[in-house]
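for ur thesis appendix - Probable GTP-binding protein EngB. copy paste whatever u need, i formatted it the way the template wanted (i think)
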Amino acid sequence: MKIKSAEFVMSNSDVAKCPKSRLPEYAFIGRSNVGKSSLINMLTSRKSLAKTSGRPGKTQLINHFLINNNWHLVDLPGYGYARVSKSSKKVFQKFITQYFGSREQLVTAFVLVDIRHTPQPIDLEFMQWLGENGIPFSIIFTKADKLRPQAIEKHVDDYKNILLETWVEVPNYFITSSSKDIGKDDVLGYIDGLNENMNLEAN
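the 3d part is after this line
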C-alpha cells in the first residue's frame, strides 16, 4: 500500500463524538514511550502527523487520521490499570474501554510492544483483555534497530512461549523500527489486505 494522503481529522475523549463515517478503523495502542507516534509517522511517511514527545503519556485523547481517504488510523492513549478492589479485575481508562466496546468500524487493533524488554505483565494483561472481549489484534514489536537479530528472536520467542500458555495460537505480529523503516511494508500490506477482503465481501 502506498500512502498518498494522511490528514488529521479530530481528537476527543468522547467515543460518541468519533467520526460517524463507516470507514474501517485500525487502532494503535501501547504503553507510554513505546514509540507509537514515531511508528505512525513512519507508516504514513509524515514527519509530524502524530506528535512525538520525550515526555511519556503525551497522547491523552482518541486521535483519528484519515488515510488515502478510505480508512482511519486511530491513535489511542497508552493503556493503564486502576485496581478497584482485590477481587476486581483491573480496568482501563473509561473512554478506551468504551472505544473498543462500541466502535463497530474497528477492524483490528495493533498492540505496540518495546522489543528491548522482556514480556511485561501490563502488555500481557492488555492482550488477555482484548482476547476475552473478542477484539482482534496484532502485536507490533517496536525499536528493533536497538537489538541484534538473535536478541530480537529470543524476545519474540519469550512472548510466544508465555502467550501459548493460555492462547491456542500466537497472535499475528510484526517486527518494526521507525528510525530504519523496518516493517513498514508488512504492516501496511496487512491493512491493505484486510481492506480488500472487506471490499470483496461488501460486493
